[in-house]
Amino acid sequence: MRRFKKFSVALTLLLLPYPIATNMFLDMAIAEQPDSNVTTQADVTPDVAKYLNNPAKEPKLPNQILTRLLQKRIKYVFVLFNENHSFDNEYGTLPGVNGLYSDGQKPREPAKTPGFTQTYTDVNGLTVKVQPFRLGPEQNSSVVDSVDHSHTGLANKLHVVNGKPQMDQFASDEYNRFASRGGTANIARGKQFAQLVMSHIDCDTIPFFWKWASRFTVFDNIFATEDTPSTPNAIAILAGQAGETQWVKHGANGQSYTVGSHTGTTQGVPIVNDPQPFYGSQFDTTINNRQPAGANESYADNNIATNLTFASLPLTFQGRTIQSVLAGNKNPLFDLPDIQQDISYIQKQRTEPVNWRWYQEGYDLEPTDTNGVASHNAYVSHHNGAQYFGYIANTPEVSKNLRGLNDFFTDVAQDSLPKGGVFYIRGGYNNQQGLKPAITNPNTPADEIAAINAAKSGDDDHPGYTDRQLSEAMAARVINAIASNPKLWQQSAIIITYDESDGFYDHVPPRILSYGPDGLPLSRGVRVPLILISPYARTHAVSHVEGDHNSVIETINTIFGLPPLASLPDEAQALAAGNSPQFNQYGPPGFQQRYLGPRDINSPITDSLLSGFDPKRLLGISPPLPASFAKIPESVVNTLPHYGGKGCQAIGITPEDQRQGIVNPIPAGFNPLPSTYPAANH
Q1: 216-238 tens-digit pLDDT
Q2: Can you tell me whether residue 575 is helix, strand or coil?
Q3: Distance of alpha carbon 391 from its chain centroid, rounded?
Q4: Distance in angstroms (rounded) separating the CA atoms of residues 220 and 37
Q5: If you compute the radius of gyration of the chain from its CA atoms, what whole number of angstroms results?
Q6: Is residue 22, in this structure, part of any structural domain at all?
Q7: Which domain holds residue 608?
Q8: How many domains is the chain built from?
Q9: Does 547 have pLDDT greater than 70?
Q10: Who contacts 398 (Cβ-Cβ below 8 Å, separation ≥6)?
Q11: Is the same domain home to 154 and 141?
């Protein structure tokens, strides 16, 4: 009875004056326990200490109260969706997280860290060992090549034995994918990639990202939804899946097309590679409202995705207007058959529509284009998850929400963003400032600098074509734009996260939830970074809740009162049908396919990001964090290298390996650019 009374009283907190709410909060704290999933980072700096609320001394609010508070405080959710880094690769030495050398509370020995010591057998029959090592400014750590993140390669790296990933084949996969081709050059390249895959960086390379991770809440147990490259996870950030329910309904095969001189079969579902969206491809016969194609992308006839027809957030965003909006779809028999029950269900819920936009560099006219014509040179079309859905791409009232990156900055500057909503922001192959990559090693040969400048000016953080500091600079411009607008900042939650790991080493085994039609692990993939920034976020905190991109969806559902995708009738039916002998056969004996679809309903395997919000700030007991706490001065943003290559010193963080006095074992003759600058391969 006492707990029920506390709960009932707490529901009125939002309506009460500050002193009364404070007293009631303290009273409620007697009954409620702290959130055991949240801990404080080590070594709080003075600029952070004045805003710090120790999570061990704050009660965990009941979900109903937390939901009410969030729905009152947060009106804008911004998802800064970056590319291709594992958690350990970027934050493995951030103090307080489950990283390479510590469990977050105490040091951990290498022998107790899965995959810490990797081995492979070279062409001479010798066993070669590789362990994690730090890349810093001395190695031009802001620019590295991309490692193997193919679906097959990632499955090799996980090395699932008896249902549990061993995380011990990262180096072996990299070495063998080149050395198996034979020849001195391939063997040398394989050796370099086997080392590169085990590298990690810290605040000397990405000081802005580390600063936000230290000042706000970093999540250290979030994984890629799919054990695949980028496209499936770009789809999953919206849908919580990459086509599993469509596979259950229609099988895995694609469709055959002949249009003009082009003949091919689309890649089926679930999507496990990086095919191009059907809409905008050579098989799309749309004339009006046609979607763009990336100018620097591969549109081979065998590299086009099947039109996706399952539910996503842009479907539930329509709310009570869904039937009238989708009445404008140009090909309903092709785009809408698998969501008919969903449409009726969403319409009956009568929820208010949620504004949304997907801003991606190069989608339309950008400042880097000439003569007022959109070149789409910066557009990485296989990263635009929204374009893969026919009911988005082929419904003008919905597709109008797909825009270019500069449109975001213009909309914020002109105060023309919709009033509240969800906004996705993505970079691309270029950077709009025309900046060159940060060369931090003064001894870099001129021809290597030329190769770097020619290949690595992108800003979405994808190894291979981007510079990490150009990428964090783009993120800083986005966050500065939001923080410079009081109306936006005061009502915002900013989520920085990644699609997948690029195949870089991470030591935390993901939970294997499903297998695909190829018999390989499908979900989940390697752990990825996630940071929550908000005036109502916890400061200097680590959340250890488990999840994937469904966690982002679940958070959006909570804030905007949306039905979970997994609860929609078409998806729920497919989820139930997937757990059957027809689909269980693709997993090991006894495995049940319980998760062939979205899983955005709160459960122990997929939690939301709500633990990253501070109860005292939401209740008004502690003041919201000021916008200045998130901003990076423009003079710093635009000066490369950031902080002169001494970012850790500038932001006051000592990485965990340095805290423990660990010597950095950089392999002799290491080359971080085995493909971009093969002349240095030895």
Answers
A1: 999 999 999 999 999 999 999 99
A2: helix
A3: 24
A4: 11
A5: 24
A6: no
A7: 33-102+202-249+306-554+593-651
A8: 2
A9: yes
A10: 314, 318, 325, 326, 391, 392
A11: yes
